[in-house]
Design brief:
With 433 residues, the protein is α+β, with helices and mostly antiparallel strands. It is built from 14 helices and 24 strands. The protein binds adenosine monophosphate and glycine.
């Protein structure tokens, strides 16, 4: 019998809750602790309240608690080198080292890498001076083009990308990032890129530095309101598999994007070990990379992981040890749907602090899971404490049934100021899956 491991999972969202629920089931897990976790996660595992951007504090905690394996999920600690610091302290960790995490932490690094290795992506220019960016933009629109995308180079809490449909919008986005420093140092350098159109697909993959095993494809719903209106959010719902991502397209992506990316990161930085997330757009000219993330997506993790067969901990350890095998990560047939309940007003200002009821009753159903995000415990009850509060995920033989079950379950969860998009999966169903 292999040694059982004491695990810590870094993060506080629904994504971490989904990972923790899977890891808890593992025969190889002695215990799971969340750092810092949230009020809902605390019903499942102990939580340690530590600032996850304080790398020395996290490392010290893991040493003191004799943690054997740390799953580092959010982008900030990865970009700050948490995996490197844990390694230096003799603790194994799931996630890329700092130099490989630049794939997400620097859009300029990612774009230059794609250009050098001929990985299909939007045409782009990079700028360090706002005057140069403004000049380029004026010429761009004067040549008759109708849209472009301005991206802050660094991490910006998911807010660093602006789609600009006019010169005025582009000028405002450039000034906000570079002159007004809206994203701090993250916007000192920017990428301006061509505007692409087509269905979007999220493909998360397990990667051990050499071998890459894609998970089931997902379709995120990023906009706050129905019909893909309203501001971008962290994600209001998700379905898997994504019907636009056919086996033929998957084969093209493997050859032209996934394998070349893994090889390029190994050459330019370090072997990528962890979850590599490809944000793709299926354009008329073929699939192109919109963004890389160095971590599981949220709510993609809550959608794909319930369909995962096999032991998540064994797969993660294989990624860390360079022993990943293509057969390890299999996904159930059928489909999954994840619907997010947010606080009305999110992603702008919203009221919170409302009692949440109904979670336990919903969890009693075999094919439904509830994952908590902006949730805390107060006087023995769960109360809302964030923008995205929780999500419900359902697995079923078809997408239609998965959506039906997720929405039915969501009706039984109650808290004041609850807001749910009503059209998750509608586009996918219309596409005929
Ligand atoms: P990101 O923060 O990189 O995930 O970008 C947020 C969203 O902006 C993406 O999910 C896309 O919908 C959109 N986006 C980013 N880059 C482009 C592009 N070059 N063309 C069209 N849409 C884009
Ligand atoms: N759902 C998008 C992300 O996690 O970045």
């Amino acid at each position: 019998m292999e040694k059982q491991l004491k695990i810590a999972v870094i993060g506080a969202g629904g994504r971490e809750h989904a990972i923790i629920r899977k890891l808890k089931d593992s025969p190889r897990a002695a215990s799971v602790t969340a750092i810092p976790g949230n009020g809902g996660i605390a019903q499942d595992v102990p939580c340690a309240a530590i600032d996850i951007t304080d790398i020395p504090a996290v490392v010290q905690y893991c040493k003191d608690a004799k943690i054997d394996y740390v799953v580092v999920t959010p982008d900030d600690p990865l970009a700050l080198g948490m995996v490197d610091a844990l390694k230096a302290a003799g603790i194994r960790a799931f996630g890329p080292v700092k130099s490989a995490a630049r794939l997400e932490a620097s859009k300029i690094f990612a774009k230059n890498l794609m250009q050098k290795y001929n990985i299909p992506t939007a045409d782009y220019h990079t700028f360090t001076e706002s005057q140069d960016a403004l000049c380029y933009t004026r010429e761009y629109f004067a040549s008759g083009k109708e849209a472009l995308v301005v991206k802050a180079d660094g991490l910006a809490l998911g807010k660093g990308v602006t789609i600009c449909l006019s010169l005025q919008e582009a000028e405002a986005a450039i000034r906000a990032a570079m002159d007004e420093k809206l994203f701090g140092t993250s916007g000192e350098r920017i990428v301006i890129e061509e505007y692409l159109t087509g269905p979007e697909v999220s493909v998360l993959s397990f990667c051990d530095g050499n071998t890459i095993v894609p998970m089931i494809s997902c379709m995120d719903h990023k906009r706050a309101r129905d019909n893909d209106e309203g501001p971008n959010t962290g994600g209001m719902g998700c379905i898997a598999p994504n019907p636009f991502y056919t086996p033929e397209i998957a084969e093209i992506c493997m050859k032209t994007i996934f394998i070349p990316t893994v090889e390029a990161v190994r050459k330019e930085a370090a072997p990528f070990k962890g979850c590599l997330y490809f944000g793709l757009m299926l354009t008329a000219a073929g699939p192109k990379v919109i963004e890389y993330n160095c971590r599981f997506g949220d709510p993609e993790a809550q959608t794909a992981l319930p369909l995962l067969e096999g032991d998540l901990l064994s797969i993660m350890l294989a990624c860390t040890d360079g022993a990943l095998d293509e057969g390890m990560a299999r996904f159930k047939g059928g489909a999954a749907a994840c619907v997010v309940a947010a606080s009305e007003g999110y992603p702008a200002s919203y009221k919170k602090g409302f009692r949440i009821d109904g979670i336990d009753a919903v969890r009693a159903a075999q094919n439904v899971e509830v994952y908590c995000a902006g949730v805390k415990q107060e006087g023995g009850a769960l109360v809302s404490s964030g923008g995205r509060v929780l999500c419900v995920s359902a697995c079923a033989p078809s997408l239609e049934l998965a959506l039906r079950d997720a929405y039915r379950a969501m009706e039984n969860i109650h808290f004041e100021n609850k807001y749910v998009r009503s059209d998750i999966g509608k586009r996918a169903l219309a596409a005929g899956c």
